[in-house]
Amino acid sequence: MRDIHARLKQRHHLGQFERQRPGLAFFTVPREYLRGLLLDLRDKEGFSHLVLLTAVDWMEEGLFQLTYMLNNRAEDVTFGIRVMLDRDEAEGDSIHDLWPTAETYQRELKEMFGINFPGSPRIDDEFILEGWTDLPPYRRDFDSLAYSQQTYAERPGRVTHDPREHMKQKLYPDGV
Amino acid sequence: MKDVDDKFLKNIDKEFPLREELRPRTVTTPDGQEIEIEPLKDYFCEAAPKVHPKAYIPIVENFYNWARANSLWILGFGTGCGAIEMRPLMTPRFDAYRYGIQWRPTPRQANLLMISGYLSVKTLKRAVRAYEQMQGPKYVVGLGSCTINGGMYWDSYNTIKKLDQYLPVDLYIAGCMPRPEALLAGFMDLKKLIKAGKCEGANKYAENFAFYKENQKSVIKDWDMPDYNW
Amino acid sequence: MTFEWIQVPYALATLFIILNYGLLMTAVVQKLAARVGGRPGIPVWQNYIDLVKNFALRSKISHGVMYYLGPVFRLSGGIGLIFFVPTIYGSTWAQNFSFAGDLILALYFIFFGTLGMALGAGESGHPHSAIGVSRGLAQVTAAELPMALAVYAIAIQYQTLSITEIVAAQQGGLFNWTLFTNPIAVAAAMFAYVGTTMRSPFDVVIAPQEIPIGPPTEYHSAYLALMQTNRVIFPIAKTIIYMNIFFGGATNWAEFAIKVFLLYMIPAVIGVVHPRFRVEQSIRFFLKWGLPVGVLAILMV
Fold it and tell me: Where is each NADH:ubiquinone oxidoreductase-like 20kDa subunit domain found (chain B) (predicted)?
């Protein structure tokens, strides 16, 4: 693992190597080097499988983090490759020609986070939401609770207890 | 509980456009004619459902209700996780068939729609369609706390929280999820209700058609079907 | 053939008996399947309740004239089969309207219902119906081939096309039955019998788990009730023909009940222990095994 990282570090400007557990490690790569790195990993290092492509919303930093999980099946090694995108622009590079499955992930990201991947097939089609008109729901500035309360009818009588206070009341009603 | 975050306001200005293939338009036929088509009107019957009266003679109606109660045909449509609790009912351990309960694969032949668990907006659209295609008298049973008050999906952006706003529910079975025993007990209660002639969901739906449609359309923004699916 | 008006109520009485017998038999078979699976199964009167319920439904939707006629054709196929075949040999009133050429008519009626169904299901406009019907027709055609060949073999053997005469020729002892005088033809016909009673392993056409329920996808309420009625009558009617041609007929209702029950149990017992064939598999099965036996039966005679 470390040797692959060391080998590719210079050419692709890789970030810090972060080992999670045996066989799993993360590192960051600048957006413009992503494609070359993925190609190298796929064709030369045997990382033939795109496990998943997902995103994290770093709202405070104004960034979206894309995570590409690649797996080398022969050696049971998984790399998580992070790419930071600008949150306002929110546009990534499509890799559907490297792994056809990426097309589905990119459609999901477009719908749930609003990250566009120009050139990806059917990127504008609905993925699982139908007729969604609001902010993409996985963005952190979308308030799910408020949206739900403003949209769906509620049945009165629902109460929420703080578990700690509730159990304290129940077990020690005298306040011992 | 009503701690609405007033900083976040739902976007209510945006309308979802009708799908292109469903918009009214002019097309040229193969022989060169220009015709106006309006898919939603042309392909579907537009009539609203009507209220079907009970049989005139009470004893006949009672006999019919007895037959309906003892021959519940469930539409095999699992909307959420509760669908998994219905499967054991077909197995030797519970065997709902001995109570006259059967699963039918098509809404035309079913009388009982089980909303088994959470109902996302996308599934609600299908459930409404399936319900409207069933033949009356038809019954709806809501399964699990999700259909009652949202359950664990109380803050979800995409699941409804109160089923009886959208479909006329005859019976709720509480639990998360209710076990098959609870389902069987629920079926027995439903039978009692049907025998007492209290399950008039289809007529209720027809009477309050405007109310149900308004609620349905308020959450299903992508409304691409006729108002009533015959 | 002579016709008297008294035959009409007699035939209707026969139909009534057969309807009730069929309803009970269907329930018994379902019960059998349930017991094999370790379940208590439905009550034996469940089919009556289902029938009443379907007639009692308040709303129904028609998709056109042919849609309405589909179940009617189907039911008339079943009823016609009963009416034109003598149910009890030698009985004055269960003779129905049998006449000299009724064997050919019976062959036609076996198919009539399916064809009517094809037209009706086609008009319902549901793609599943159309697919289901074409699959069903393909399978039934393949299954009926050995039956047709066996019937020709029998017709040559007895030099008649009248079922009454065929039954008459088989009277007077067990070994006069076609089963023993022409076993190959009977074997060929049993292929068709198992294949067309719409029980597993040949019921993929109407199996609920398949292309949802096949032809009757759009049928509901009273339409479905009509088809259910036919579903219980038709196998019995078919069994009567087989009983008449191959198993010596019946001279009284008790013998009828026992023979039909035993014959009916053949596909039922085969059904509960066999998984379903796909349509192309069952067609291949009939063409490979049923058809040569049928041809052999003709050659043997």
Answer: 80-189
Q: C1 in a domain, yes or no?
A: no
Asked if the interface predicted TM-score (ipTM) of this complex is over 0.90, the answer is no
Touching subunits of C (3+ CB pairs, under 8 Å) are: B
**pLDDT tens-place string over residues C207-243:** 666 665 667 778 888 888 888 888 888 888 888 888 8
**Is A174 domain-assigned?**
no
pLDDT beyond 50 at B1: no
pTM of the model: 0.86
Residues of B in contact with A134 (CB under 8 A): 10-11, 14
Beginning with the edge strand found earlier in the chain, give each strand of the sheet holding A63-72 in spatial order. A18-21, A24-28, A77-86, A63-72, A49-58
Phi, psi angle pair for C105, to nearest 5° = -60, -40
Asked if B119 and B80 touch (Cβ cutoff 8 Å), the reply is yes
The answer to whether residue C228 is domain-embedded is yes
Please check whether residue A171 touches B, CB under 8 A. no
* pLDDT value of position C59: 81
Of A69-73, B82-86, B126-130, the one with minimum mean pLDDT is B82-86
Domain that holds residue C180: 7-31+40-300
Chain B residues touching residue C41 (CB < 8 angstroms): 95, 97-98
Q: How far is A158 from chain B (nearest CA, A)?
A: 7
Binary contact (C42, B100; C-beta < 8 A):
yes
> Is the residue at A161 inside a domain?
no
**Computed over its alpha carbons, how large is the radius of gyration of chain A?**
21
Does B160 reach chain A within 8 Å, measured CB to CB?
yes
Q: Say how many C-beta atoms besides its own lie within 10 A of residue B15's C-beta.
A: 9
Place of tokens 């106006």: B36
CATH of domain B59-219: 3.40.50.12280
Q: ∠ at Cα C175 (C173, C179), nearest 5°?
A: 125
Over residues B212-228, the pLDDT tens digits come to 999 998 888 888 888 88
| Residues of chain C found within 8 Å of residue B68, distances taken between Cβ atoms | 53, 56
Phi/psi of residue C149, nearest 5 degrees: -65, -40
